[in-house]
Every structure is written in C-alpha cells, then in structure tokens.
C-alpha cells in the first residue's frame, strides 16, 4: 500500500509502516458470567488494515472499544505505540486524540454544521487556529466527497453522507489509528458502497485501521489480515485469501458457509 497522503492531514501517518502499533496481550473481559473477551493476544502493525469478523456476540465490538478504553478490561495489557493504555485523566484524553473512532450511529453533534463538527476537535484539543482547522476540514470533506455539504446540519444529510463526515472528523485529529465499529450496519443498502469506497481509499493510502464489519467484500479487498472471533476468542488470523478460500477451523467454515451464501 502507498504511504498515506500527508496533504490530507498535518503529518504523514504511515511513517515506519510495519512496526507494531497496537499490542494486546492476554486480554480478558467479563460481563457478569459472560466471558466476552477470552485471552486475546494480537499485534496490529503500523499501516496495517485488520478486519475483525465473526457472529453476533463474539466480542468484536467489545474488542474494538477496549482498544480506545471505551470499555475497561479485567486483565491483560493493551498498548498503543509502545505506551500502556492509560486508565483515566489527561493521558487517556491524549490517547483518544490519537485514536479515531467511527461508530455505526455516526455520533455527530446535531446542532453544529458539518464543518463545525469536523473542526471542533482540532480547535479544542489540538489548539489549531480556526482558519487552519477549516482549511483542513474542507480538504478532508472533499476527500470523502461531502465538501458541498459543509454548511448543512447532520439532519439534512443522508446516512451515508453523515458517516463520511464522521470519518472526516476522525481524520481531522491526525490519528495514528482509526477504529471502526460496524460503520455501515446502520446504513440503507444503497448507501453502504459510498462509505466502503472511502474506507478502501484510506486503506490504499496506508491508514492503520481496525474495522469490525460484516462486509466481506471490504475484507477481501482492503484487509491485510482478517481476525475471526467466536465466543470471545480469536479463532483464526490469516490473510483474506487464506481465510476466505481455506478456513482452518470448523467454526469459521460454518460461519462463512452461512454469510457467503447470501
């Protein structure tokens, strides 16, 4: 994959591609009696696109949210760029500024325009001047194909447009990593491809991404690696070609036989 275009943000995100960026070691998480993350260990390298798939209730979204500490863990270690995930305070806020998060429900500020949604983080957190933040935001909105919607409120946009704004908002913080938790699951079918196209573009330009999704086409096209989870465990990790064409576990074979039949 090519290096991420530095003109889109304030620095070159993909410097040092191939070095470990996210490390999870023996991560466990319970919800009462439910063991939702069971001894999870994996590494995501800088510039890598990892797609996490699996049946509902397998722990995919919890894993994604734990990396940003939106969910706490019971035991184990998560580190980002060599630093242990902080528990609270300014260090946690700094980490969240470096780790973008795109949710299935967009989470845009309804009372702010598209442009204001994208500039809020750079101005408030990065202390960027308003004019510079707006210039950056317009470049990113153009990149995701919604620059002509900059003055509108989120309610005036389609779901696909709102999700593309949410992606631009994450990029505006110049993140080391973007986490995407089922970013197309709340969209009407005809809007899914416009968001997937943006995601593929980010992958092609070297953005480090962890994507929880049911979009197998995206996994085949854009992922460097597929992690298949079931019952809170990582059952398989492989390249897309290896996983989709030659799954090793019976659990993965059963999952693929059902999901690829539709």
Automatic annotation (TrEMBL):
Residue intervals of the ABC transporter domain: 22-256
Topology with respect to the bilayer: Peripheral membrane protein
Keyword set includes Membrane: yes
This enzyme's EC code(s): 7.4.2.1
Record carries keyword Nucleotide-binding: yes
Transmembrane parts of this sequence: none
Recorded GO CC terms: plasma membrane
Cellular compartment(s): Cell membrane
GO molecular function: ATP binding; ATP hydrolysis activity; ATPase-coupled polar amino acid-transporter activity
Catalytic activity: a polar amino acid(out) + ATP + H2O = a polar amino acid(in) + ADP + phosphate + H(+)
InterPro entries on file: AAA+_ATPase, ABC_ATPase_HisP-typ, ABC_transporter-like_ATP-bd, ABC_transporter-like_CS, MetN_ABC_transporter-like, P-loop_NTPase
Enzyme class: translocase
Domain of life, source organism: Bacteria
Keywords recorded for this protein, A-Z: Amino-acid transport, ATP-binding, Cell membrane, Membrane, Nucleotide-binding, Transport
Homology family: Belongs to the ABC transporter superfamily.
Protein name: ABC-type polar-amino-acid transporter
